[in-house]
Amino acid sequence: HCFASKIVCDALQDCKVIPNDNPKWLLNETHDFFYRPEKWAEPYIEIYIEERVPVAQIGTVNGYYIIDKNSIALGLSQVKVEGLTVITNMLISEPTYGNRIVSDSEDKVNAVNSVLDAIKEYKLGDKITGVDVNDPQRILLTYENKVYVQISSGATAKDRLKHLETTIEAVKDKLNEGQTINMESENGYYIK
Question: Where are the beta strands (DSSP E) in the chain?
Answer without folding.
Answer: 31-37, 45-51, 56-60, 63-67, 73-77, 85-88, 128-132, 139-143, 147-151, 180-182, 190-191
